[in-house]
Amino acid sequence: MSAINAYKRSAHGVLRDIIEDAGNNNSVFYTYKDKTLIGKEIFKELYARFQKEDGERKGFYMDDSKEIGILSQCQSLQALLLLASDFDLDFDDKHIVSEEEENYTIREIMDFVIEDILRSIKTKTPGKYRFDASPYDTGRHFTVEHSNLEAITWVVPSFLQALKYHATIGETCKWEEQLVSVISYCINYMNDAFITSENQGRSTKLEIGWNFTSQCEEPSLYYSFAVCECYVEFYETFKELLDYHEAKRNAELGLKIDKALEAQHAAHEASKKKALEKDAPGKTKEGRQIARFDTYNELAMHFAAINNGNEGISADSPYGTFEANCKALAREVWRLTRRDLADSFFYNDLETTLSESDISIATTSDALFNTVYIINIMLDAGIDEEITLRRELANNDVEVREAEREYNDLFDSCQLASQKAFRTYEKLKTDGKEYIVEQFLVGFNEGFTVHKEKVKELRKLRMRVFTLMPLLIRTNNVISEYLIKYPQANMRKYLSYILENRLEEKNKFKWIWENDGFFSCSNYYYIAALGEFYRYYETYEHRYIENYAENDVSRAAIIREYSRELEAPGGAISDLHHQLREREEQIAALQNKIDTFETPVEDAVAAVVAREMKTLLPGMLCEFMSMASLGLTVDDVEPTPCTDEHRAFAHAATQFMLALISKYVFDNVRSGKLTKEENAENYKELNAKLAKEIKRCIRQYVSEIHDSDEGRSSLFNFN
User: Fold this and answer.
1) Helix (H) or strand (E) run with residue 680 in it
2) Which DSSP category does 220 fall into?
3) What does the pLDDT look like over 454-469, one tens digit per residue?
4) 133 φ/ψ angles, rounded to the nearest 5 degrees
5) What percentage of the chain's residues is helix, strand, coil (to nearest 5)?
6) What are the beta bridge partners of residue 133?
7) pLDDT per residue over 539-573, tens digit each?
8) Which of 301, 383, 543, 653 has its CB 3.0 to 4.6 Å from that of 330, i.e. a possible disulfide?
9) CA 528/CA 153 separation, integer angstroms
10) At what angle do helices 520-536 and 468-479 cross, to 10 degrees?
11) Is cis: bond before 569, omega within 30 of 0?
12) CA 209 – CA 187 distance, rounded (Å)
């Protein structure tokens, strides 16, 4: 079985849908189907779950219940936007689903969803918004003052991506002011909802972070993770701008700013100035519709509007405060888990650890999810960069070594913790116990004072958030991207996990996830993980395959020329052909002798035995001598571990050798030509001396064999 077929079989055949060509079976890389083709297949499945009928609303439903809400809309919208960005789908293609008939484009679907979300969060007070937990909860328990933080962390990335899309194509977004207003409101809400240690005064467990709404008393690891994911989306949207301002901030601390980054920013500023000069005074908005800014300046304008007019990341700006809160949380999580993360799992408060065996006997456990949340909180907030910066700013070797040691601890802990979570899940699955850790339901178990009655009702909702596997895969990818930064042998195994967890109907895998039915949140994370696999593939493997293909012509020419040399008279292939013909002739001659009985069978057997005995006898005698020497060690001063069998063999060997050479020796050393019987006493005495000498020679012989560089004794020389 070829390597590729073995791999397909190990993944239950699911890889057949994505592997394009096995190529050279000796190659370490495979060729995968173009990601756009896969993206279209996924889009078709998502499109089938988009409510298109005329009614109160259009949009995506969360699961097979077909209920629509903020969470389901944003989760599927972000999946759709991932297909456009990571799988290169055309926003305006009306034939993604079918070439025969037109369907809604990605852009039109995005418009439907954004309009629905804006309607659902709108309040009577301008600039104030209310986020519920629909479709789980339609607003009974959430108000403007106490919005659902989880919904905020889904809405913000969706709106950021919509702004980024329009900036990229150089087009004014028709909801620009509304989207900016909502995002600005949300970042301030998240800052206000941040729980600090000053509120609680605790010192042995998680002290800071976020929970499901404002005025909560205790942080929740899950909600803190959700907010840090939102923070990453801010960074990814405004990456070029934020990198420049971070470099400026580091320059104030004493580091040199990257000249290329500074020149790039200056070029963007010149471009912005040139565009504004084309506008009439006081008509900036209208002017931008005529003379667009470049993408960088469009996004910089949005960022400033979101950040209360601040283009930088100063500590007192909304974004600066948001960044500081996320980084403070990451440091706290690392402080609490640094010692045990590599070896243990944690409860939600990060105070108590538990083992794999503790999990296996539980009814349900969030421990594996907690590992995912811990790692992602730390890496989302850039604690690795913070440690690296501390090393670069170190004043002495002690500080440098401490920073290096901490970075190595972070590297090892994250990698080992992720692998440990995978192994534990696989073991539980093998034992049929994966249900213990597979699903994450939003918990409301913390001690609330302000929200006591609300929490009682919310607990009844059993709000399902994640399935474990896509989050584990995503966590591995985050570690690879931020810490390891080189190809991972496990990437192909994770790909099989992604593919085999698709929805299966009538023995066929669909391009939608989960096994037990479509769920919009897990579906988003599986699509994200598949997109990250393609990004890995293009970065590390496809480049190699392309280079291999580019050299096909040259390689084929070299092979042809080399083949001609080998096959020419005197070449290696020509010589081998000649030898082969000679051997064939010898075989034919021998076969003819056998067929005509020219050589009797007895002669043939005798010839074979004689030849083989001549070949094998020296080696047999060496073994014979060695075995005999084991029994002869009984005569030595020091005791040796020989058995009765060894002694018996030594005696037999001595008698055998004595029988072979005694007559020859006796005839050469005795006087006269008397017979054995006539000279019995002399014969007996000589035999005793001869036996003793034979034993000595055997031991000497074996010793010389062991000491000889050539592995054999000079005594054993038949020439």
Assistant:
1) helix 680-707
2) B
3) 888 787 777 878 789 8
4) -115, 30
5) 65, 5, 30
6) 137
7) 777 766 655 555 555 556 556 666 666 666 666 67
8) 383
9) 17
10) 30
11) no
12) 14
